[in-house]
Amino acid sequence: MNKNILSNKWLRLGVSFLTLAYLGMVTVLSVWTFLYEIRFRSERAFDIIYIALSVLFLILMIYTRKQIPTRIVGMLLLLPVFLLILFNVSRPVIFVPPLVVGIILFFACSAGESTKVIMGTIYILMYVVGLVVFWIACTLFGGSTVETKINADAPAKVTEQYDMAQIENLNSMSVSPDGKYRYYILDVQDNSRGKVMIVVEPNDLDREYRYFTLVEVGYTTRVAIHNVRGVTPDIRWVDGKTISYTFGDGEWRTSTITEMKEKNYLRFLNIG
Predict the structure, then answer these.
(1) CA dist 13 to 54, 101, 210, 260, Å?
(2) Straight-line distance from the first to the last Cα atom of the chain, in angstroms, rounded to the nearest whole number
(3) Which of 44, 54, 53 is nearest to 98 (CA)?
(4) What pTM was computed for the model?
(5) Other beta carbons less than 10 A from residue 243's beta carbon
(6) Distance between CA atoms of residues 25 and 210, nearest Å
(7) What pLDDT shows up at residue 252?
(8) For residue 92, which of 144, 142, 47 has the smallest C-alpha distance?
(9) Which of 3, 191, 197, 266 could be 271's S-S partner, Cβ–Cβ 3.0 to 4.6 Å?
(10) To the nearest whole number, what is the mean pLDDT of the chain?
(11) DSSP code per residue over 116-168
């Protein structure tokens, strides 16, 4: 009886349409990680649910591998996965599960051999050439400079350079009085003595959801630069657009935010 139910063509077709949701989820995730920084309430919970969903959908896709919707997913899934790799190269858990699902489904689905040959050739070229170009672009434009936001999540080799008690206190007061802007402190490692920067970004463009926040990134203004790493600044908001700061020399300076630079859509290449 159960075997007859599972072999029902209408059930397979219905389940096959459900697999389109996975393609949609991966596509939306690739768009979000391009435009925003995603901050989950619990990253561990997200990782577990994300991997579990990928396994579940893979089972459903293998079950419906002969259905047209599943074949469409099998042929198209590796495209948004490629974008996930580019935008999240430092966080493999984002792209590895759908990459595994995409590869298995590509070979398992019953799409025509000629279609698989054409799409397979396109994907091989896209992944090989695309990743090589990506690496070259990062090397040429990113250079040897490493920029790190100074907070509790920063690597120890960065945090040990600063008074983290003072940094955490400053971070807790980073939002401007009117809530429109926020600042963060940036550690810059380069071939010289490095730098410490105070960077301002919008605070009112984030999108809040129940389990995560889409943090707007790419709009930034560097309001202050100190040409030596390891100096912990002091920062105060004068008003909604003016920051007062000092880099430990006793001299307070001010900077007024007139406008944000245009959004840097190539931030994943460490450009700009």
Answers:
(1) 19, 20, 33, 50
(2) 62
(3) 54
(4) 0.82
(5) 21
(6) 17
(7) 92
(8) 47
(9) 266
(10) 88
(11) HHHHHHHHHHHHHHHHHHHHHHIIIIITT-EEEE-STTS-HHHHTTS-HHHHH
